[in-house]
């Protein structure tokens, strides 16, 4: 492993905005049953940035992610993704969405699960041979060569989530929206997945918006950590993370890392108090 | 979730081969186990039959020996036919009736189930008819249908299909409708069309459900065809054989048991056929979904 400082310049955050939320509000239900999930959310995520969303349960982290993905529509305010409406960005396949559950199709093999987006998108200028090479490359990148013919139920939870990661990367989206992707995994697998994800982020030019419950995970992975308040969700604080790259286990043992974890934890407990 | 997922990657590669052979061995074990189980059940059945006859001291006109039924199968009947061939001919007709009915039921049931799952308003319109159809006592209206539509095989196929329709429609509706929101969101994130969502997500995930319904429907179609043959006026079919055998029971008790055995065989064959198709179509699906 190289020393952190030498390769810190490898990661360049862009100046363009990839995702922006402006005065975004989202209400679920209507009338007396309406619940306000998020309110007055202003947030800009730059191209090539890795931003974590953290907050108490029900603070609308996932709501924010789904708004960017056009899986739900805002009740107020505007969401812009790659200078487009979220709908246009969705139809242009600008983002890949990774769910907490791997959401693989049981009847498809690992290979065919990863190929699914390509089947639907009919990407022009990509020969079937090139597609096959890409799937092969991604499967070996996530450490699953040899498992192409397996079905999802024959794999462990960690392996399944890696298939889902390969599936999200196969059409090379410029943005990854990740909703607690490793939340259901045991700690050791989770740590390894985090480092893998970070490596992928460094290697590709991807913007990542990452929802998590875990403070150490948020600090380890991100350029910035966005702390949100409980219902209705608002942005409590945005904490920049000035840790060197690559983020290895050595970084995890540094003093600065602990300071940042503490800072996020304090901010988070303030956010919880605001709930009372 | 196992906590021992430490050197997962390294371990996975080395265990892969073993993983596959173990799976194969497991499949063999379960196949030979199943055959043993069937043999035991057959032995129990025959033993129970003979024990019952011995214990109750039943005369031949109540319960003949099993071997007497077998002997009868190879005898010549009053028309000069070998009995088992004659029963086979009747079974073939009932089979064609049941299979035709089942085929129609598959098409109609699948269409109705899909509509019920996907279109709220059409679904609500169809639902009362599906439920209504199921509450109609088929045994009661079969004679009326035979009077209206004649005693041809088409009438019997219709009744068989009528019975088979319901399980297919219900399981299709359930299966097509039962997909997780995450899966739908995933397809949406790819900008998938409704047709793509149907063929790449809803239909394949519904297949295990549909086959469960199909198995029940296969058994129902045989019952429907036999019931449809019972009303007076039918000439052939295993239902007619059962009816005639019952009339001559005191003279030739073996014939009724032979006919019943034939009907059971037909039902079993129908269900077995569906199972074999299922094994082929659902290759690669999770094993417990196949049971």
Report on this structure:
- The complex is a heterodimer of chains A (276) and B (291).
- Chain A is an alpha/beta fold and 276 residues long.
- Chain A contains 9 helices and 9 strands.
- The longest helix of chain A has 19 residues, at 255-273.
- The longest helix of chain B is centred in the first third of the chain and has 49 residues, at 8-56.
- With 291 residues, chain B is mostly helical.
- Chain B contains 11 helices and no strands.
- Chain B has helices spanning 8-56, 66-73, 83-118, 120-135, 138-149, 153-177, 181-189, 194-229, 238-247, 253-281, 287-290.
- At the A-B interface, strand 5, helix 3, helix 5 and helix 6 of A face helix 1, helix 7 and helix 8 of B.
Key phrases:
heterodimer, A: 276 residues, alpha/beta, six-stranded mixed β-sheet, three-stranded antiparallel β-sheet, 9 helices, 22% strand, B: 291 residues, mainly alpha, 80% helix, globular, disordered N terminus
- Number of H- or I-type helical stretches of chain B: 11
Question: Which value, in Å, is the CA radius of gyration of chain A?
Answer: 19 Å
Q: In angstroms, what separates the terminal alpha carbons of chain B? A: 24 Å
- Quaternary state of this entry equals heterodimer
Instruction: Give helix and strand order of chain A, one letter per element, not per position.
Output: EEEHEHEHHHEHEHEEHH
Number of helices of chain A: 9
Largest interface, and how many residues on either side?
A-B, 39 and 32 residues
Order of helices and strands of chain B: HHHHHHHHHHH
Sheet/helix structural class of chain A: alpha/beta
The average pLDDT of chain B is 85
């Amino acid at each position: 492993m190289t020393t952190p400082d030498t390769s810190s310049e490898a990661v360049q955050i862009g100046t363009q905005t990839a995702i922006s939320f402006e005065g975004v509000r989202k209400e679920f239900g209507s009338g007396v049953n309406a619940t306000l999930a998020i309110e007055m959310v202003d947030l800009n995520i730059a191209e090539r940035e890795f931003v974590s969303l953290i907050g108490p349960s029900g603070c609308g982290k996932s709501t924010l992610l789904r708004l960017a993905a056009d899986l739900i529509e805002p009740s107020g305010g505007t969401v812009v993704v790659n200078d487009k409406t979220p709908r246009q960005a969705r139809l242009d396949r600008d983002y890949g969405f990774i769910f907490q559950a791997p959401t693989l199709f049981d009847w498809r093999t690992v290979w065919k699960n990863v190929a699914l987006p390509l089947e639907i998108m009919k990407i022009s200028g990509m020969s079937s041979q090139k597609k096959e090479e890409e799937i092969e490359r991604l499967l070996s990148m996530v450490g699953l060569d040899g498992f192409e013919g397996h079905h999802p139920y024959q794999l462990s939870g960690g392996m399944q989530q890696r298939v889902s990661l390969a599936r999200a990367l196969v059409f090379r989206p410029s943005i990854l929206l990740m909703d607690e992707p490793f939340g259901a995994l045991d700690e050791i697998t989770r740590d390894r997945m985090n480092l893998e994800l970070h490596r992928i982020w460094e290697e590709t030019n991807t913007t990542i918006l990452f929802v998590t419950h875990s403070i150490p995970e948020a600090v380890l992975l991100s350029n910035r950590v966005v702390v949100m308040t409980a219902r209705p969700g608002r942005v409590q604080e945005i904490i920049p993370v000035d840790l060197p790259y690559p983020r290895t286990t050595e970084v995890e043992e540094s003093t600065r890392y602990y300071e940042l974890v503490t800072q996020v934890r304090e901010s988070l407990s303030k956010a919880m108090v605001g709930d009372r | 979730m196992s906590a021992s997922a430490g050197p997962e990657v390294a371990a996975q590669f080395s265990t892969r081969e073993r993983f596959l052979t173990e799976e194969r061995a497991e499949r063999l074990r379960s196949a030979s186990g199943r055959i043993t189980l069937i043999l035991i059940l057959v032995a129990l059945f025959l033993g129970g039959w003979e024990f019952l006859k011995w214990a109750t001291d039943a005369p031949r006109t109540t319960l003949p020996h099993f071997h007497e039924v077998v002997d009868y199968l190879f005898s010549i009947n009053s028309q000069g036919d070998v009995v088992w061939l004659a029963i086979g001919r009747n079974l073939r007709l009932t089979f064609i009736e049941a299979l035709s009915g089942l085929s129609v039921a598959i098409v109609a049931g699948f269409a109705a189930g899909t509509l019920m799952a996907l279109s709220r308003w059409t679904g609500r319109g169809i639902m009362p008819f599906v439920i209504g159809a199921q509450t109609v006592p088929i045994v009661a209206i079969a004679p009326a249908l035979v009077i209206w539509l004649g005693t041809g095989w088409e009438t019997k196929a219709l009744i068989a299909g009528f019975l088979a329709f319901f399980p297919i429609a219900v399981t299709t509706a359930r299966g097509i409708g039962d997909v997780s929101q995450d899966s739908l969101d995933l397809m949406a994130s790819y900008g998938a069309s409704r047709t793509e969502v149907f063929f790449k997500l809803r239909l394949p995930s519904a297949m295990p459900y549909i086959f469960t319904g199909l198995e029940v429907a296969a058994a129902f179609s045989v019952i429907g065809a036999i019931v449809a043959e019972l009303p007076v006026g039918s000439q052939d079919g295993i239902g007619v054989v059962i009816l005639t055998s019952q009339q001559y029971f005191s003279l030739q008790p073996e014939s009724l048991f032979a006919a019943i055995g034939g009907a059971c065989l037909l039902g079993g064959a129908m269900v077995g056929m569906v199972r074999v198709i299922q094994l082929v179509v659902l290759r690669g699906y999770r094993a417990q979904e196949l049971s």
